[in-house]
C-alpha cells in the first residue's frame, strides 16, 4: 500500500524521502529533531540517501542492503576474521611439490586441529568461494554506497541556499548571534571581504543580508575518490584470474638447454649456472673455509617464438630478444616477464661423448665418433668399423623380470646397443652394449654382457675433453603479473582521495541579519579550532572582538 | 535524476553479478589437480607420427578418440600397451581412434618399444613436454577418452585393465 509521506518543508522545498535537514533552508524536518536543542548532525548535509523510497521493490531491497554502511562494516569485519583464519597454518598454495597432498599433510603435521582446518577448507582460504564472495560483496557495497551518497551530496552542495533557517544556524556546533548597530548590507559585505582574505568563496543573496562563505569543498570528494581507488584494486585482483595475466611457474634448465616457458611465447636458454664462494681473504678468520656463498647466478638468453609457436609438429622459429645474468634480487626482466633465480642442482648431466673404437687384438683405435644422448644418429663409421644403433636406454636398469628397462627420460645411466660390423666380426654384425659412464660399466658389468666381443673390441672415451656435459641445472621462477601496474593506478587514487579528505577540510559559514540581529552558524568536518579562528578573524575585522572559544556550541571534537 | 535511478540500479547490480559470478565461479574451476576437466574440449595438438607426418586431434573430429600418454621409462605404460592394442583391434572398425602420445622421448627410444610391443595404433611424439602440460598430466600413464564432438568423456590415471579400457571406449562410441 502506498503511504503518502509529507516531505515538503515550510520554505516550500520538496525534499526526497529520508531527508533529515531541508535541502534548501536546512530546517530539521523530523519533529523530534526540531524540538531537540542538540547540535545538528550534518552528515551528508542531511540529505536523503539516493535509494530511499517509501515503498521499495525487490531490486530496491537488494540495493538498500548494499547501500548500508552498517552492513558494509559487518562484511569487512567478516573478511578480516576469514583472512585471519587463513594465517593459522600455511596455505596449500605455498607448497610447490607436485606430490603435495593437503589431506595428508594437515592432519599429519598439526593433528586434530589440522584435520579440522583441512575439513573446513581453510587450507585454501584466499581462493575459497566464500572469501571471494565476501570481497565481491564488499566491492558491490563500495560502489552502491558511494553512488547513493555522492550524487545527493553533489546536488546539495551544488545549489545551496544562502539564507538558512534560524534553527539550522543556531544549532551548528559553531554559532554566534548578537544585535548589530550599523547598516546590515554594509556589514555583510565587510564580513564577506574579510573571509575572502582567508580564501573563502563568498556569496551574498539578493537582499544583501544573508551570506554563505565556503572553502575547500573538494575535500568532500576525497572519500569517493578513495573508493574508486579501492574498487580499481578489487577489479585488478579479479583480473588476475584472466588466463595469462598472472603466471607463477617454475622451470628447470640444464646448462646449455633451451626450454619453452609454459603459458607464454618465450623460450629460455641457460648458458650456465654458477655458485661463487667467498675467498678466504674476503672472510673473517672464524668463517674461513666454511664455504660462504657469494653469489648464485645463471646466464640466460631469452627467445621469443616467431613462427610455428602453437604447432608442435614444425620446429618453432626462435628470435633472441634479451639476455641477462640472473642473480638473486636481479631477475631477468623483459616486458611483463620476470625470471628469478630460485634453486639449483650441481649434479652434472652427460650430453654427448666422442668415443674411439679400439681393436683389442691389434691395439689400433679408430674414431672418434660423436654420440649424443638425445636423438643420437643411427649409423656411425669409424675406420673399418660400421656401427648401427639399435637400442638405447637413458636410465638403464634391470626390472624384476630380468628385462632391461629405463627408469626415466634423463641420462642418469645411459646405455647404447650397437650392431657392429668390421674386421674379425660376424658378417651381419655383432651386438655390443656400451655404457658411456664409467660407474655404469662396472655396475652393470659391461664386459659380462658383451661376452666374447669384449675381448675383440672396446668403445672408449679418451679424456674429459671428449665428454660434453652440463655441470649444473638452474631452477627459475617465472612470473608474469600484468595486473600489477593497474594496482598502482588504484593505489594512486586511494592515496589521492585519502590526502584530499585528510589534509583539507570543507568549511562553511552562514549568516543572516534580520532586523539588526546577526545570526551566524559555521560547519566543518574537522579542525573546528581553525574554523572558529576564521569566524573570529572576520568578526574582528567588522569590529566584534571575541574569544574564538566562545563560538563553541559543544558536541564536537577538536 | 530520478528517471535514471532504476537503470543505474540494474546496470550496477548486473555488473556486480557478472563480475562477482565470474570470480566465484573461478574458485570452483581452478582446483588442485590441473587435469583437463571432463566435459571440456580436449586441448588441440599437432604432432609427428612415427613416419614423420603431422597428425592433429582435429583430424578426428566426429570420431571417438582415445589418447594414451606413455613413455618407455614408465613400466605400467608399457604393461598396458598390449591391452590397448587388443582393444584397438576390437573397436577400430567402429571408427575408434587410438593415439599413443609418447612423453617427449627420442626416436630410437620410441621406435624400439613400439617394435617390441607390436602396436599398430597411431604413435605420436610430443615435443618438450608441451602437449603433456596442456593436458595437465601429473603422473603416468594417463588416458583420456574423447567424445565424437571433441569433448572429454573421461580421464583415467594409472594402469588400465583391458576390461576398463573396454568400458570407457563403449561410452564414447555411443
Helix vs. strand class of chain B: alpha/beta
**What is the number of E strands of chain A?**
25
Number of domains of chain A: 4
The SS-based structural class of chain A is alpha+beta
Low-confidence stretches of chain B: none
CATH topology of the largest domain in chain B: Glutaredoxin
Q: According to CATH, what is the topology of the largest domain in chain A? A: Tick-borne Encephalitis virus Glycoprotein, domain 1
Which overall shape of chain A is indicated by the principal axes computed on the Cα atoms?
elongated
Largest sheet: spatial strand order of chain A: 1-25-24-3-2
Percent of sequence in beta strands of chain A: 25-35%
CATH superfamily of the largest domain in chain B: Glutaredoxin
From N to C, what is the helix and strand string of chain B? HEEEHEHEHEEH
Q: What is the first-to-last residue Cα distance of chain B? A: 60 Å
Structural description of this entry:
Chain A is of the alpha+beta class and 558 residues long. Chain A has four domains: 49-156; 183-215 and 505-551, 2-Layer Sandwich (TATA-Binding Protein), CATH 3.30.310; 246-349 and 473-482, Tick-borne Encephalitis virus Glycoprotein, domain 1 (Sandwich); 355-460, no CATH class. Chain A is 30% helix and 28% strand. Chain A has 13 helices and 25 strands. In chain A, the strands form seven sheets. In chain A, strands 1-25-24-3-2 form a five-stranded antiparallel sheet. Chain A has a four-stranded antiparallel sheet with strand order 4-23-10-9, with no helix packed on it. The longest helix of chain A has 30 residues, at 129-158. The model of chain A has no long low-confidence stretch (mean pLDDT 89). With 174 residues, chain B is an alpha/beta fold. Chain B has five helices and seven strands. Chain B has helices at 2-29, 75-91, 107-117, 130-134, 162-173, and strands spanning 46-49, 54-56, 65-70, 97-102, 122-125, 142-146, 152-157. In chain B, strands 2-1-5-4-3-6-7 form a seven-stranded mixed sheet, covered by helices on one side. In chain B, a hairpin with a 5-residue loop joins strand 6 (142-146) and strand 7. The mean pLDDT of chain B is 87. The interface between A and B is large, with 50 and 44 residues.
